[in-house]
Amino acid sequence: MTKSEQEQNEAVQQLRQEFGELKITLETEFLKQFLIARSWNIKDAKEQLENTIAWRKENNVDMHPVTTMDNKLPLLYPIRGFSCLPDGNLEVHPNISESVLRIYRWMGGSCLHKTDNDGCPIYIERLGHHAAKEIAKYATSEEVSNYHTGCNEFLHRVIMKDCSKKAGKHINRETVIFDCTGMGWHQLHMPALYYIKAVSDTDQKYYPETLNKLYLINAPSAFVMVWKIVKGWLDPGTLEKIQILGKDFKDVLLKQIPPGNLPTFLGGQCTCSHMPGGCVPSQILKNIPIMEPNDGNENVSTAYCTSIMEKGKTDEIIRGPPFFQETKLK
Ligand SMILES: [Zn+2]
């Protein structure tokens, strides 16, 4: 549904009024995310936003530590090409929980890799190489969700702000490339698919309208079966942004992404040869060594160890930039 700018502004104003005086500032673009997700129905958008604020409070999400230049916390996943932090990988560091390393061990590879033509960060995941059964066997749904929340908070509180600065406009969406190379029937594993459901439920409920484009490339015919299941879990608005592509994906990707920002294995020119694992490190593809957790990695379901998670509640440097700006008193 398209709305004129005036209608959009009126809806944003109405939604803002519904919340009255708050300690936090609800930015226009943020309110729009909820209005778009709920087809501009103010009552529904209000409900979703209330649920989001409540969920963030109940789960201490606002206190979740995120990596910055000031706190030098270890990264939860690899990043390339942002100004706010040097390029880096996930590494065995005592502040990382054992559960993150355990999940990451069985992932086919992931990286937050540079930006697209809209100025949005690009997240690349080598989905086809995920050891789906191992993830489902060795990790709990809670551990996967917590890891995902840690990554989401870093994306929205650190990377999106960096991209907004660079683009000179508000950036709150990410472009996603899921590479299905290597995908087979072994991935059609219901317990693993339920993890995808849990993760996409969280995103749609509490981080609505944060997807710019999603490309599923090298999709094999087996995937069509998986897709029929996954499709039912997604909002119509999300479905519109998804393109399923087989082997002929290069031209489509290059319309959205400058060649220098796209890895060579995806049809671009980037190799990130200065980094271990190149553009997308992967233990499964053996372009980086296997990372074994050690005794220093606490076995907890949170992304960081308990002491770091606790410090996030009181230490502003460890917590990093806020998700919501505090409202300035008049
Ligand atoms: Zn690269």
From TrEMBL:
Organism: Phascolomyces articulosus
The protein, known as: CRAL-TRIO domain-containing protein
Family annotation (InterPro entries): CRAL-TRIO_dom (IPR001251), CRAL-TRIO_dom_sf (IPR036865), CRAL/TRIO_N_dom_sf (IPR036273), PI/PC_transfer (IPR051026)
Taxonomic classification: Eukaryota, Fungi, Fungi incertae sedis, Mucoromycota, Mucoromycotina
SMART domains xref list: SEC14
Chain ranges of the CRAL-TRIO domain: 112-274
